[in-house]
Amino acid sequence: MSASEWADSVAPIHVGSDPSSETGAVIPSISLSTTYKQDSVGVHKGYEYSRSDNPNRNALEKQLAALEAGQHALAFASGSAATATVMSAVGTAHIISVSDVYGGTHRYMTKVASELSNLQVTWLDLDTVSEQTIIDSIRENTKLVWVETPTNPTLRVIDIAYVANILSNHPSQPLLLVDNTFMSPYYQSPLALGADIVLHSLTKYVNGHSDVVMGALILPEPSPTSKPLLAPFLSKLRFLQNAIGAVPSPYDSWLAQRGAKTLYLRMRAHGLGALSVAHALERAKARGQVRDVIYPGLPSSSRFDVARRNTSAHAKAWIDTLRNSIVPGLGLEESGRGYDPELDGIPFGGMISFRINGGEQETNAFLAQLHLFALAESLGGVESLVEVPEKMTHGGLSEAERASLGIGPDLIRLSIGVEDAVDLIADLERALDAAIPPVETSPNVPQLRFDIQPSDAASEVSDESPLATRLPSATPSEYGDAVKETL
């Protein structure tokens, strides 16, 4: 059976992890050797020097290709190294980029590639821009369109298939790259939507344990119907991976491969937890503590329809199995009905941004009261994190650039881990109450609250308690363990 015939949840566990033919070990060993014996000049077992090829990196790359339903994967020492390699492959040319891009990507494009190779960048709000504007922005030397969706940190959602269709029908057919870091291969499949290149900071969700810095590029197999630029671009990327040498170590490759095996389990917990927290923040908005909740999976989000279109087929199938279940944190326990994606929204990754009802003083007061959320940059680990983009991840942008993107002292970004959603909500509500006393709310607005003390963060429930229990047998006391549902 080939990797393409396996179920989506099976391939990441088995591709690149064949049992050892020598020992029968089911887990790949770590190959630390930097060089390899040749039987004679140029005759070897596929390996010469570890910068060029390494068994652990090759195994990881096979796994990554399977995760994104691609054919070629290239691993790098960081997401930034992957970005730099793409920019080197583009060379002296023009690209189009989404305006609300990761700060490190913006920095490399404007302060490195523009100086070293005279890269020219046109910035567009690709979530709202018209088709004609995109077409008019493509020049004769436009090689690439850079999409990050959802964007960081304002979570704008770009319709991947829409942009891909425009580019495929344009005479110059520039390549479409999608940074899929925020969604992971579980919730979004850019290649299936028409993208040509997928980029990941593997540091985040794919590894998932905050102990590896790594990046990757995944591409499909070039064919006679592919864009003319795809095959030579893939060849150049492979050449630059070896020539530049920004490759991950064998040990880091081994760690990332191990982490990716549980991606599907973790992403379900991240997504359900984020949806529950987003609902809790909407309730805090009704109490006057929050001004805006940004989570594309909410039905109230202007990006909800596009988010559903971008959601992968396997994630949609899983979400559909949750219908009529009780999902903790959504406020359904007393409503008499189960989960409905149309009414309650969909799990759409683990990232949430919100604007606190105040400024820097209220933000700092809120942060000081959190117990379960660590104040830290990065995202995608099993632990929940909180950060203030204005001072942290996007501090390198100018004040005017941050203002144009809506990044101010009131904007707070959450990376929802795999902890119990009920405990996370209690932690957030406690911190919000300390920073901004709630106002009176309408009796028609549901105000589900979770008053759990920090010492009770781990709910005590039976090992047989599911996360999503079918009505009508469920009772609120059964919803303590947030990662046991249909993972």
UniProtKB/TrEMBL annotation:
<dbReference type="GO" id="GO:0004123">
    <property type="term" value="F:cystathionine gamma-lyase activity"/>
</dbReference>
<dbReference type="Pfam" id="PF01053">
    <property type="entry name" value="Cys_Met_Meta_PP"/>
</dbReference>
<dbReference type="GO" id="GO:0030170">
    <property type="term" value="F:pyridoxal phosphate binding"/>
</dbReference>
<dbReference type="GO" id="GO:0019346">
    <property type="term" value="P:transsulfuration"/>
</dbReference>
<protein>
    <recommendedName>
        <fullName>cystathionine gamma-lyase</fullName>
        <ecNumber>4.4.1.1</ecNumber>
    </recommendedName>
</protein>
<dbReference type="InterPro" id="IPR000277">
    <property type="entry name" value="Cys/Met-Metab_PyrdxlP-dep_enz"/>
</dbReference>
<feature type="region of interest" description="Disordered">
    <location>
        <begin position="1"/>
        <end position="24"/>
    </location>
</feature>
<dbReference type="InterPro" id="IPR015421">
    <property type="entry name" value="PyrdxlP-dep_Trfase_major"/>
</dbReference>
<comment type="similarity">
    <text>Belongs to the trans-sulfuration enzymes family.</text>
</comment>
<keyword id="KW-0456">Lyase</keyword>
<dbReference type="InterPro" id="IPR015422">
    <property type="entry name" value="PyrdxlP-dep_Trfase_small"/>
</dbReference>
<dbReference type="GO" id="GO:0005737">
    <property type="term" value="C:cytoplasm"/>
</dbReference>
<keyword id="KW-0028">Amino-acid biosynthesis</keyword>
<keyword id="KW-0198">Cysteine biosynthesis</keyword>
<feature type="modified residue" description="N6-(pyridoxal phosphate)lysine">
    <location>
        <position position="204"/>
    </location>
</feature>
<comment type="pathway">
    <text>Amino-acid biosynthesis; L-cysteine biosynthesis; L-cysteine from L-homocysteine and L-serine: step 2/2.</text>
</comment>
<dbReference type="InterPro" id="IPR015424">
    <property type="entry name" value="PyrdxlP-dep_Trfase"/>
</dbReference>
<dbReference type="InterPro" id="IPR054542">
    <property type="entry name" value="Cys_met_metab_PP"/>
</dbReference>
<feature type="region of interest" description="Disordered">
    <location>
        <begin position="453"/>
        <end position="487"/>
    </location>
</feature>
<keyword id="KW-0663">Pyridoxal phosphate</keyword>
<dbReference type="GO" id="GO:0019343">
    <property type="term" value="P:cysteine biosynthetic process via cystathionine"/>
</dbReference>
